[in-house]
Amino acid sequence: MKKRILAIAMAASMVLGASTAAMAADKLTLGTGGTTGTYYAIGGVMATVLNPVLKESSLTVTSTGASKANIQLVDMGEADLAVVQNDVMYYAYTGTDLFEDEGAYDTFSTVAGLYDETVQIVTCDSSIASVADLKGKTVSVGDAGSGTEFNAEQILGVYDLTFDDINVVNASFGDSADSLKDGKIDAAFIVAGAPTTAVVDLATTKDVSLVQLDEEHIGKLQETYDFYTKTVIPAGTYSGVEEDATTVSVRATLIASNDVSEDAVYELLAAMFDNQEDLIAGHAKFEFLNLEDAVKGISVPFHPGAVKYFGEQGIEIE
């Protein structure tokens, strides 16, 4: 009888121990984007590579409507982590532009900037050499209400242009490339990692050029919108583009709910940098993850776990 009681007690202890261990690791939902997009792909790589080494948490990846939807999901408690553009999270934090109607969100904080999403102004018209040359032209500015549309408006603004000065077309990147190919538009704003597939395909059939931003106007843009970083698209990124092109980028950024523990975020960041080679093997975008750039162009406060990690690495958060 005593042996049976002891066995039951040991079994109960094992179950309790397993339950306690399971409770110790927070199950964190990571909001990404559409299943064919980069956000979803990098989220899957993070879960595959990092879950075996994480002790404070485990990642579950979910497909979402990307940046704006991700911030809303974090706010509602349906996602704990998310990948978003740093300009969109600025709009959410300040209740401006994309979030002007619904107001500010303060339930999330920054974990790290991941990689650049570059503002590419693409044209097949050799007479368009500057943003100023877009005046009077037919220009795709991205989907209506998209982050790209706001990027276009802001960049035109520092050249003293508005949407009233161009013939505005709202279209996806793929549709914009098709319209450039068919001569239906003169230029297109495309905000994505370079090279972008739609532009790569276009450059195989048409002579493509990239409209550059000059130093003066980049500085003016950054004075008002500090989420932009200066970027150079290297020569050869697209067929026929034989010179470097200076522009700006926003950054794909990892955010966390303020309810996620400091320890979980600290461990997640440490695991990302400690296992970066394995992350790169899963997706090339992780080549652009580095300590210095991870804190650049960020205008939303960092999560305490991120503050602790970057502080220990000697990285000053602006």
CATH class of the largest domain: Alpha Beta
Q: Helical region count? A: 11
Task: Describe the global form.
Answer: globular
Query: Over the alpha carbons, how many angstroms does the gyration radius reach?
Result: 23 Å
Work out the count of structural domains. Answer: 2
Strand composition percent: 15-25%
Topology order in helix (H) and strand (E) letters: HEHEHEHEEHEHEHEHEEHHH
Give the assembly state of these chains: single chain
Largest sheet: 10 strands, mixed
Overall mean pLDDT stands at 90
Report the span from N to C terminus: 67 Å
The helical percent reads 25-40%
Total number of strands: 10
CATH topology of the largest domain: D-Maltodextrin-Binding Protein, domain 2
Structure, explained:
By secondary structure, the protein is α/β, with parallel strands linked by helices. The chain has two domains: 27-114 and 252-312, 3-Layer(aba) Sandwich (D-Maltodextrin-Binding Protein, domain 2), CATH 3.40.190.10; 118-250, Periplasmic binding protein-like II (D-Maltodextrin-Binding Protein, domain 2), CATH 3.40.190. 39% of the residues lie in helices and 20% in strands. The chain is built from eleven helices and ten strands. Strands 1, 2, 3, 4, 5, 6, 7, 8, 9 and 10 form a ten-stranded mixed β-sheet that branches. The radius of gyration is 23 Å and the shape is globular. The protein starts with a helix and ends in a 6-residue tail after the last helix. The relative contact order is 0.16.
